[in-house]
Design brief:
- There is one protein chain.
- This protein is 40% helix and 11% strand.
- It is of the alpha+beta class.
- It folds into two domains: 16-79; 95-165, no CATH class.
- The strands form two sheets. A three-stranded antiparallel β-sheet has the order 1-3-2.
- Helix 4 runs antiparallel to helix 7.
- The longest helix is centred in the last third of the chain and has 14 residues, at 107-120.
- It is elongated, with a radius of gyration of 17 Å.
C-alpha cells in the first residue's frame, strides 16, 4: 500500500520532472494556506519524491504542464485534465459561487485587471489599489475580480510569491 501511494522509500532530492510525474499520477494535489509544518502540497510531493526545489511548481505552471484549479479544493492538476474542468469554469463565469456575478457588478474593474495583467504579466492582488470591507475574508474589489476570473477560466495562476497567487 505504501508503494502504491508512491511514497519515497528513502530520503533524496526530487526534480521538477518528478513533481510533474507525481501530479500526473495522483491526478491532483491539494493546496492549503495553513503551514504548521509546511504547505500541504510540499508535504504530499516531498513524501513521494524527496526534497525538491520550491520554484519547481511555479515553473511547471508557467510552462503549461500543471495548473491550479478547484478540483475538490484548490489543487495542482495536470494540464491534460483541463478539459474536465471547463464545465465548472463555464458555470463560474455566469456566477461566482461566493461572490455572485462579479463581472456584471464590476465591468470596469474587470477590464482594468485584464488590461494590467496583459500589459505587465502575472500580478497578485497586492498590485492593485483598494481595500476590503473588513472581517476574515477582507478581499478588496480587485481580489474578488481576480478570483472570479480564475474560477471562470479567464486567467490562470502563473505561480505564487510566498503563497499569494500571481
Amino acid at each position: 500500500m505504501v508503494e502504491a501511494q508512491g511514497y519515497a522509500s528513502r530520503a533524496r532530492g526530487g526534480t521538477a520532472a518528478e513533481v510533474l510525474a507525481t501530479v500526473q499520477r495522483l491526478g491532483c494535489v491539494q493546496l492549503d494556506s495553513i503551514s504548521t509544518v509546511d504547505r500541504s502540497h510540499r508535504i504530499a510531493l516531498g513524501a513521494r519524491i524527496g526534497a525538491y526545489p520550491e520554484p519547481a511548481v511555479s515553473k511547471l505552471m508557467q510552462a503549461g504542464r500543471i495548473f491550479e484549479y478547484w478540483a475538490h479544493e484548490a489543487c495542482l492538476v495536470p494540464v491534460e485534465d483541463y478539459p474536465m474542468h471547463r464545465w465548472r469554469m463555464a458555470r463560474f463565469a455566469e456566477s461566482h459561487p461566493w461572490r455572485g456575478n462579479v463581472f456584471e457588478r464590476e465591468p470596469e474593474l474587470t477590464d482594468q485587471v485584464l488590461r494590467e495583467i496583459g500589459e505587465r504579466g502575472p500580478l497578485g492582488s497586492r498590485h492593485f489599489e483598494g481595500s476590503g470591507p473588513g472581517g476574515m475574508w477582507n478581499w478588496k474589489p480587485a481580489k474578488v475580480v481576480l478570483e472570479a476570473l480564475h474560477s471562470a477560466g479567464r486567467l490562470a495562476i502563473a505561480g505564487r510569491d510566498g503563497f499569494q497567487r500571481l
